[in-house]
TrEMBL record:
It comes from Halopseudomonas aestusnigri. InterPro entries: LSM_dom_sf, MS_channel_1st, MS_channel_C, MSC_TM_helix, MscS_archaea/bacteria_type, MscS_beta-dom_sf, MscS_channel_2nd, MscS_channel_C_sf. Residues 181-263 form the Mechanosensitive ion channel MscS C-terminal domain. The chain crosses the membrane at residues 20-40, 60-86, 92-122. The lineage of its organism: Bacteria, Pseudomonadati, Pseudomonadota, Gammaproteobacteria, Pseudomonadales. This is Small-conductance mechanosensitive channel. Belongs to the MscS (TC 1.A.23) family.
């Protein structure tokens, strides 16, 4: 019995200081973990509130929240591991090497991801706008992390990688509230130039979709090989652009026909020379 008691006392003397030392570290680490986890949750809610007030794109909204939450929680776990005496240097080195390997293997995808983040942050276009980029054009259907989906006027789906999209030229046809319509029409050299200009100006002034400011104008833009080329330049709302363009072009043809003004087409005169033998 005495031997058992002596053994217990020895164990108590050996382990009690260690238990006190590491128990306090473990309790502090656990408290840090709980408090840190709670703070991360509060921080994410605050970040989501700020992004909602600033009308951040929903796709970017959720992605940034998830990425920030994961990064902060990983840092918290590494800090807690260091508090209980776990060596974190090698662990961080392994994570860094793994991250480098993954980055090299997925550099194309990472470029698309970075391009998507830039597009969502800078907003050169939004869903529903009509754009032209990378040799294609269409209405933006959705902006995703790795690519942007366009719908063409004939209802084709075009998927454009965000990496090339963010680094190239983008023409946004929908961003401005108004657009200029240029109707370029040629008339014959023998036709009445003033009458043709009056007809075009009358068409512009008679269409309610044509804006008064800036005022419509008709210019003689060039004297071509086969025609005198006129340009009717008018401003309209962006949503009315194509309707105005097609309808006024048709009306101009009908009005010119009624007034006896011809719209010439390229012609070639061939002279045959007969040689006597």
């Amino acid at each position: 019995m005495d031997e058992v008691m002596n053994t217990l006392r020895g164990l108590e003397e050996a382990w009690l200081p260690l238990l006190i030392e590491y128990g306090s570290k473990l309790a502090l680490a656990l408290l840090t973990l709980l408090v840190g986890w709670w703070l991360i949750g509060r921080l994410m809610k605050a970040m989501n509130g700020v992004m909602s007030k600033r009308n951040v794109e929903p796709t970017l909204h959720g992605f940034i929240g998830s990425l920030a939450s994961i990064a902060l929680k990983v840092l918290l776990l590494i800090s807690v591991a260091g508090m209980v005496g776990i060596e974190t240097t090698s662990f961080i080195a392994v994570l860094g090497a793994a991250g480098l390997a993954v980055g090299l293997a997925l550099q194309g995808s990472l470029a698309n991801f970075a391009g998507g983040a830039l597009i969502l942050f800078l907003r050169p276009f939004r869903a529903g706008e009509y754009i032209e980029a990378q040799g294609v054009s269409g209405t933006v259907d959705s902006i995703q992390i790795f690519n942007t989906v366009l719908k063409t006027p004939d209802n084709k789906t075009v998927i454009v990688p965000n990496g090339s999209l963010s680094n190239g030229n983008i023409i946004n046809y929908s961003r401005q509230a108004t657009r200029r319509v240029d109707l370029n029409i040629g008339i014959d050299y023998s036709d009445d130039l003033k009458l043709a200009k009056d007809i075009l100006m009358g068409l512009a002034q008679g269409d309610s979709r044509v804006l008064k400011d800036p005022e419509p104008v008709v210019w003689l833009v060039s004297l071509g090989d086969n025609s005198v080329n006129l340009s009717l330049r008018i401003w309209t709302k962006t949503d009315d652009y194509w309707g105005v363009f097609f309808e006024l072009q048709e009306k101009a043809k009908l009005e010119f026909d009624a007034a006896g003004i011809s719209i010439p087409f390229p012609q070639r005169t061939v002279h045959l020379v007969q040689q006597s033998t």
